[in-house]
Each structure stands twice: as C-alpha cells, then as structure tokens.
Write a structure and sequence with these properties.
The chain has about 325 residues and is of the alpha/beta class. Helix content is about 55%, strand content about 10%. The chain has two domains: about 5-175, 3-Layer(aba) Sandwich (Rossmann fold); about 185-315, no CATH class. The chain binds NADP nicotinamide-adenine-dinucleotide phosphate (NAP).
C-alpha cells in the first residue's frame, strides 16, 4: 500500500530542473514537502527554477542536509558529477533515480547506509505535471537498487505518492527490467520507431508526387488522434473506432509494413540493450562530444518535412541564424 509523503521525513533535494526535475519539484512541493532545487549557476534551468518560486543552489550545496536526493540529471552527465555529489550527500540519505540506466551499468558508487531506489513515472515530465494539476496521477515503476535500511520499498512508495503517482498505480519491478524495457520502448516505438515511420511514409507519398502538405497532415499530424484512441482503448478497441475501409487496411497492410525485417531489427535492438552494446555505443558517442547526434539532429531540422509542416499548419518561417 502506498504511504503518505511524510514517510520521507526531511527535505528533498531535486538535482536538475529539466523535463523530469521541474515536474517532480513542483509535484513534491504541492504535496507539502520542503524541496531544494540544485541547478548549475548561469544556465537556463537555474532561471526557470527561480521563475517557479524555488531558490536554486549549486548541486553540491542543495544535497547537504537533504533526507532524500532525486537525481534528475541527464544520464550521461550524472557519472561526471558523481564524485563531487557523493562526497556532499548525507551518508543516510535516500537516493531516487527516474531511470535505471546508471544503476544497471553500476557507474555510480553509493554509501553503505544509503537506500537507492528507482521511481520512474510512465511518461514525460510535462504530462506528470499536467495530470497532477488535474488532480490525477501518472503510474510509476518502482525498483530497489540498494536496501540499506530495510525500508527502501517504503521510501520509494512514499516518494512516488508525493509525486502523485499512487493516484494511478505503482508497479514494482527491477532496475534491469525498467532500464531494458524503457530503452527498447523509446528506440523501437515511442521515439525512434514513430519518427522513422512517419518520415518514411511522408517521403513515400512525396516521392510519388503527392502534395507535401497533404502528406504531412495525413501521415504525421493525425497521428495524435489515433494515438489518443490507442491510449484510451488499446489495439483492439482502436479498431472499433475506425472506418471499415481503414480497418481492412490496418489488418492487411500493417503487418506488411511492420513485417519480418522490422521484427528482426527490434530483436537486434533488444540484443544490443541486453548485452551492453548499446550502452557502450552511447558512452563512446558522449566521450567524443556527440558528433552523430549533432549531425543527425541538424539534418532533421533541414529535412523538407519541416517546411511542409509549417505550410500545412500555417506556421511562421523560423528566424534565420
Ligand atoms: N524526459 C523525461 O520525461 C523522462 C522520463 C522518465 C525518466 N527520465 C529520466 O529522468 C532523468 C532526467 O532526465 P531529463 O529528461 O529530465 O533530463 P534533461 O531535461 O535533459 O536535463 C536535466 C537538467 O540537467 C541540467 N544539466 C545538464 N548538464 C548539467 C551539468 N553538467 N551540471 C548540472 N546540471 C546539468 C540541465 O539544466 P541546464 O543545462 O540548464 O543546467 C537540465 O535542466 C534521466 O535519468 C532520464 O532518463 C526522463
């Protein structure tokens, strides 16, 4: 059973005020907890935290005296800051992570008296905040990495309750399952798969001579309405909400588009995650200054689908520079 936030007993330091950090800090504060935000000086997160009514401090100062420390920094950044942070975090503090990436890879060292838990909300930070503002909650995955006190599960549940997640459902899992499933989901469906699918479909229509704007509205813009239906009703329920023509196309063409080749690519992606090949690739990319990410993100911004989007939706041209 989920416990009251009071079980956390003491100030919570939230390190990082990005997608998760901002949402979690606001939800925890609304739950009545004393929240200290850690942000580096002179960067965007610091001023955003100030604008939200927090008094941000340098990370190593924010953790001093905190009973709970939520590490909501980018996964590739946390290990570089850890030696300084670990020295400042209280020996008996509970450490909370939103993703098991660094826990599974064992890139961080923890004190023997520290509980280390995973509380991973099932959705982006923006949604985590919006649902709480509506008086609802987002489900969360919970796992225990290190149970120093025998109360690690209780503390994970108390933290998730303060985030509002117990209003939905708390799922007990393991660090390994959360990390591997999360990476697989974002690579093959939620980010990688979805983006590659819509761009490939748009390119197919445009190469066949169709209007780029109509192709955008059909293959990209409308995705939200169908994703909402899928979210509300599941795969079988979605089929009750579409026309008979769409249904026949779904049943006959869908399995061809996502056929054997795609299933093999999914199995390979999972294998890369499970063997650590993906983590090694990500670490090498980060060590080299992220050249692949920079080049592909820039190419994506120059892709003609972006101009088609602006024209289709009547949006202004971006400013040069
Ligand atoms: N994105 C999501 O919704 C989501 C969902 C579930 C779990 N998670 C997990 O939540 C954690 C945080 O992810 P996120 O997406 O919220 O991260 P993020 O928004 O990319 O970054 C978090 C914050 O870290 C700060 N930061 C970056 N480099 C820093 C440095 N060297 N020193 C100090 N601060 C630094 C950034 O602020 P400045 O650059 O302005 O300093 C930023 O506000 C990760 O473990 C992630 O896997 C995220």
């Amino acid at each position: 059973m989920a416990l009251e936030p009071a079980a956390l007993a003491g100030p919570v330091a939230v390190l990082g005020f990005g997608h998760q950090g901002e949402a979690q800090a606001l939800n925890l504060r609304d739950a009545g907890l004393e929240v200290r935000v850690g942000a580096r000086e002179g960067h965007a997160a610091e001023s955003r935290a100030r604008a939200r009514g927090f008094a941000p401090q340098p990370l190593a100062r924010a953790v001093r005296g905190a009973a709970t420390v939520a590490v909501l920094l980018p996964d590739d950044v946390a290990p570089t800051l850890w030696p300084e942070l670990a020295a400042a975090i209280e020996p008996g503090a509970t450490l909370v992570f939103a993703h098991g990436y660094n826990l599974l890879a064992r890139t961080l060292e923890f004190g023997a008296a520290q509980d280390v838990v995973l509380v991973s909300p099932c959705g982006p930070g923006r949604v985590l905040r919006q649902v709480v503002e509506r008086g609802e909650g987002l489900p969360a995955y919970l796992a225990v990495h290190q149970d120093a006190t025998g109360r690690a599960w209780e503390r994970a549940e108390a933290y998730a309750t303060a985030l509002g997640c117990a209003r939905a459902r708390l799922w007990r899992t393991t660090v390994r399952e959360e990390t591997e499933v999360d990476l697989f989901g974002e690579q093959t469906v939620l980010c990688g798969g979805m983006n590659a699918l819509v761009v490939a479909a748009w390119e197919t229509l445009v190469a066949a001579g169709y209007s780029p704007e109509i192709a955008y509205l059909e293959c990209v813009h409308q995705l939200k309405y169908l994703a909402d239906l899928l979210h509300e009703r599941g795969p079988a329920g979605l089929r009750d909400g579409i026309s008979g023509t769409a249904l026949h196309g779904d049943l006959t063409r869908g399995p061809r588009v996502i056929g054997e080749a795609s299933r093999r690519a999914m199995a390979e992606a999972l294998e890369d995650i499970r063997t650590g090949r993906y983590a090694a690739e990500l670490a090498a990319e980060a060590a080299a200054g992220k050249p692949l990410v920079r080049e592909r993100v820039a190419a994506g911004r120059r892709h003609p689908i972006e101009a088609a989007r602006r024209r289709a939706l009547g949006l202004p041209e971006p400013e040069a520079g």
